Amino acid sequence: MLKAVQILCCSSGLTRLTKTRNSSTVKLSTFSSSSSSSPRKTLCFNPTRMSSSSLPGSDPVPKSPTFVSGDVRKIKFCQWCGGPTKHEIPDGEEKLRAICTRCGKIAYQNPKMVKKVLQVVGCLVEHEGKVLLCKRNIQPSHGLWTLPAGYLEVGESAAEGAMRETWEEAGASVEVVSPFAQLDIPLIGQTYVIFLAKLKNLDFAPGPESLECCLFALDEIPFDSLAFSSIYVTLNLYLEDLRKGEVKFHYGTINKRPGSSPSDIQAFSLDYHLQP
After folding, report:
1. Can you give the three-state secondary structure of the chain, one letter per residue?
2. Residues in the chain with pLDDT values less than 70
3. pLDDT of the residue at 62
4. Which of 23, 161, 176, 192 could disulfide-link 183, Cβ–Cβ 3.0 to 4.6 Å?
């Protein structure tokens, strides 16, 4: 995957994924950097992600059969406590989920990159020298700041998932510019894929999973109040790139220090850090 993303960043030039708030059409345009006369390839598809009545913070989960998750009714018992499940649509969502009747946890069906690894996708949204952060309204890390990100759904690409999460958590319509970082976290079986993105307009507002959404100047990013190590690493890599005058793609493995608290987001080492 790293090789493919590096090729995307270094060889193919800029890949741009766009959508509009009142349009069901998404266009993926690739610009070749090798020749100014090279043709532009545009892929159009209709995920029916949003309607004209969509409001900031509403869940724009698509209705297209292409994006239908697996049959959640097959999930009869909770994977955490073993309790029986009920099948309902949780508040703030539009998809049927399996919910434990004992501990209340929701079983989300996510595509697995490899066995027991969940992919988290999100956007580092830039606007006039500022970045968009959301204050979490859910656990874990309730009340702390994060980039808009979440689990990839079955049937969507990483870029689509990152755009969807940005809409759900910040009500923000964005244009994906390029992949920025892939961060593996073996301890919890997760891989983060973060894209650089641009705001299409300033019409954003917190969704059900966010208390606030704000644009922070780079010297005002609340590093002492970030939710996760992955977000701490991503933002530091971004600031380091800006200081060097060139934003690159990063790959790394985040390993927690032995004996550290899960809430200590700075107790880690960034291993196998690679960049073009």
Report:
1. CHHHHHHHHHCCCEEEEECCCCCCCEEEEEECCCCCCCCCEEEEECCCCCCCCCCCCCCCCCCCHHHCCCCHHHCCECCCCCCEEEEECCCCCCCCEEEECCCCCEECCCCECCCCCEEEEEEEEEECCEEEEEEECCCCCCCCEECCEEECCCCCCHHHHHHHHHHHHHCCCEEEEEEEEEEEEHHHCEEEEEEEEEECCCCCCCCCCEEEEEEEEHHHCCHHHECCHHHHHHHHHHHHHHHHCCCCCEEEEEEECCCCCCCCCCCEEEEEEECC
2. 1-70, 110-116
3. 36
4. 192
C-alpha distances out from residue 258 to 186, 247, 255, 267, Å: 13, 32, 9, 9
- Under a CB-based contact definition with an 8 Å cutoff, are residues 252 and 271 in contact? yes
What Cα–Cα distance (Å) separates residue 84 from each residue in 65, 70, 104, 210? 28, 19, 10, 29
At position 28, the amino acid (one-letter code) is: L
Contact status, residue 94 vs residue 76, Cβ threshold 8 Å? no
* pTM for the model: 0.62
Amino acid at 73: R
- Between CA 250 and CA 223 the distance in angstroms is 20
Cβ distance 111 to 102 under 8 Å? no
**Residue 203 in tokens:** 């019409």
Q: Nearest CA to 178 among 15, 2, 3?
A: 15
What's the pLDDT at 78?
Answer: 86
